Amino acid sequence: MLFPTFEFLAFFAFVLALNWLLKKWPLVWRLFLLLVSYYFYALWDIRFLGILIILSLFNFAIGWFIEKNFWQAKKFALFCGVAADVLALGFFKYYDFFRVSAETFLPKLGFGTNLPFLEIILPVGISFYIFRAISYLADIYQQKIKAERSALDFGLYMAFFPYLLAGPITRAGEFLPQLKNGGAKVIEDLYRHFSLILFGLFKKLVLSSFLVLNLTDDIFAVPENHSALGIALAIVAYTLVIYFDFSGYSDMAIGFAGLLGFKTPPNFNFPYLATNLKEFWKRWHISLSSWIKDYIYIPLGGNRKGAAKKHFNLIFSMVVAGLWHGAAGHFIFWGFWHGLGSSVNHVWLDLKKARLSKCAAIVSVLGKAFGWVLTFVFVAIGWVFFRAESLAEGWKMLKGLFNLERPTESLPILVFVAVAGGMIFLFLEKPLLDIFSKVQARLPFILWLLFILLAFLVLFRMGPETVPPFIYFSF
Amino acid sequence: MKDITKVIIFFLLLMIALPFYESKRVIMWDSPRGENVFNVFHGFVLVYAQGAESIKTGLGFNKKSPAINSLGPFVATTSAALGLQPTSTDSQLPATTISHNQMTFSPPSSPYRFLLVGDSFMAVMGGVGDILESSLVRFKELAVLRVGRVSSGLSRPDYFDWPNQVRQLIANNQPNIVVVMMGTNDAQSFEMISPEGQREIFKYGTQKWEGEYRRRVREFLNIFQENHLLVYWIGLPIMKDPVYSEKIKGLDLIYEQEILNFSNAQFIPTWGLLADQNGNYAPSLLDIKGRQMATRVSDGIHLTTFAGELVARQVLEIIKEDIALELKK
């Protein structure tokens, strides 16, 4: 069940009513949420549920083992837990990549390969819940949190349906306390949650779907058949698409969780307004970037072991972020591209801090505008490799930008309007979100009801004619 | 009023209003490949939307779709293609395996203007359409226009009206060759409205359904014949789900049989190309380097780039038999 579908809304209406009704009995309430989350997941494939339950039980036990520090082996327990999680992820996500790579290279070295072909189906959401599990184990080891006593609560932490399929990668320290004593008794920020759901629907159903269907899919598929202008437009459009698609999903997840009484930190904080790459990564997919920072970059030494190590750590962490999306050269390059960019950005920021660049201080406004353009272009180029089927296809796309011989194709005017509108929306999203929430709060109940109802009807009518998939479901 | 009460009232109202207002879309989003039977919410919304459609029709809110009304009188023929019980007329139809027709149509001369049309196999990246387009644009004096629409086919002109779309595409772009690949969404029932305004559901698998579907295929092919286009119709490959696969086999047979009536058209089967040695579904096949490569993405329907390349290569070889293609420098 995808969020912007009729069946999900029916499912959610059912869960919502019972969620608040059952809170009087905290155990029943938590059991109910766990069961509906499992039901939600099993609808994709019942086998996925088995994997989720096994991994939940395993990590619950390891967490307990780490905390108790049996045989003074908590470090070993952490290692085993993380290794098993990574192996599970690796098996489902990377096995075929390694098998094909082995079959390619080992014969050249004179070795035979006996790796069998396995028809592996990637369990949707596994990258997200395994990262949740790893952060849970690491946080217990670092004594940031206590191991969860209730297997039921831990199961829910792993499986909570609004976050299950594509995050956010919530931390145990944020989520688990919200299950205690029957959880929240009221819905906080009701209007904000509705704004998030509606903005998420608008970004996904209207903006992203339109651009994918009418521009990006076609041009990215065969760039050699398109003009430089068409390719440039498709690159900008895809930069918008990936944001609208993923942040739209996250907004909806946060909104739906909020209506059930759960607080979730923002996963996107208007990232395309960033004026440098460091800021971009503080605003983009925050739950993943902060995970990478806390569990890879800092344990590697962060910036504490000299400049050279810091830059290596930055690039390495970003390559891991790229690999997390999939075992393919273009994802690794995307990670490397951002790692390299972040590294250069850090050098620049250090220089500024050291006041070696007086020029930058004098023209700070111009500098910010330039920084914004530079960051946007840099990120957009990175998305080309993220979106392309392979590194070669990515290069083909970029080379097409300089092929001025091919005549410009006739694109519908609506495509230009959508790209321009999307760009403007990036700047207006935050104030519009605030205004939308405030307007709701001032409306009498009946008017509010009609207003939101109308908004849903209009958004679904403006949406595509097919069930829209989400880009991040494949990760 | 408490916020919780407000929200619950809202969602109850939403579930009454939204599927009613969007009943057509609810029905359309119902997958022809079959939904999970345990998804009670899907079933509930679908039944409610079907009821809403009847109410709206009864109240006169549903206008007749010109696309459906223009289809003319129903034609019912029968065959074993869909696994129907044989009838007295079945024996007159071709056997389930037929040899390819040889085109007697004169191939067009260069420049070649290819029109590629179809469903997700043509539309989605890593399918067949984009790989075929990439392969074709490497040749001289050749242009390609690829128009693919996800979830489309000949069953639901109310969603995407392919006959009218191709008429416009032909008028605007004057292609001389068309490559078609569609049908993955077509094994579904459709609603018909007779010239007298009577509504009738043609349930998938019935004789009426097959008769009407065959007529649509012929109508579609007629458009190309009238416009003197060379047609290559790529058949659908074997599918992972055996029930769905049988349906696809039936559709392939319909295309193959109907194409026999058109001298400008050729059917290119892919069933065996993506099956194993025993004719069963093959999740992987050996590539040129002897590596086992996956043929399908996780749904067991859509192709990986590797399988897309296998199909595109076969199609290109057949096209090259008919027209002279010269690589660009």
Q: Could you characterize what this model shows?
A:
The complex is a heterodimer of chains A (475) and B (329). Chain A is an all-alpha fold. Chain A is 71% helix and 0% strand. Chain A has 19 helices and no strands. Chain A has helices at residues 6-21, 26-42, 46-68, 74-105, 126-141, 151-159, 161-164, 172-175, 190-221, 228-259, 277-283, 286-297, 307-325, 329-353, 358-362, 364-387, 391-400, 413-442, 445-462. In chain A, helix 3 (46-68) packs across helix 4, helix 4 runs antiparallel to helix 5 and helix 13 (307-325) runs antiparallel to helix 14 (329-353). The longest helix of chain A is centred in the N-terminal third of the chain and has 32 residues, at 74-105. Chain A is globular and about 70 Å long. Chain B is an alpha/beta fold and 329 residues long. Chain B has helices spanning 3-21, 23-29, 40-58, 66-69, 120-123, 129-136, 162-173, 207-226, 242-259, 305-322, and strands at 112-118, 142-148, 177-181, 190-193, 199-202, 230-234, 265-268, 284-286, 292-294. Mean pLDDT of chain B is 82; it is low at 64-100. Chains A and B meet through helix 1, helix 4, helix 9 and helix 19 of A and helix 1, helix 2, helix 3, helix 6 and strand 9 of B.
Q: Which CATH class of the largest domain in chain B is shown?
A: Alpha Beta
User: What is the makeup of the main sheet of chain B?
Assistant: 5 strands, parallel
Strand order, largest beta sheet of chain B: 2-1-3-6-7
- Helical content of chain B, roughly? 25-40%
Counting DSSP E segments of at least 2 residues, the number of strands of chain B comes to 9
Largest interface: A-B, 51 and 56 residues
Write down how many β-strands of chain A occur, each being a DSSP E stretch of 2 or more residues: 0
What is the beta-strand fraction of chain B? 5-15%
Radius of gyration of chain A: 23 Å
Q: What is the helix tally of chain A?
A: 19
Distance between the termini of chain B: 74 Å
Q: How many structural domains does the protein architecture of chain A include? A: 2
Query: What is the number of helical segments of chain B per DSSP (H or I, 4+ residues)?
Result: 10
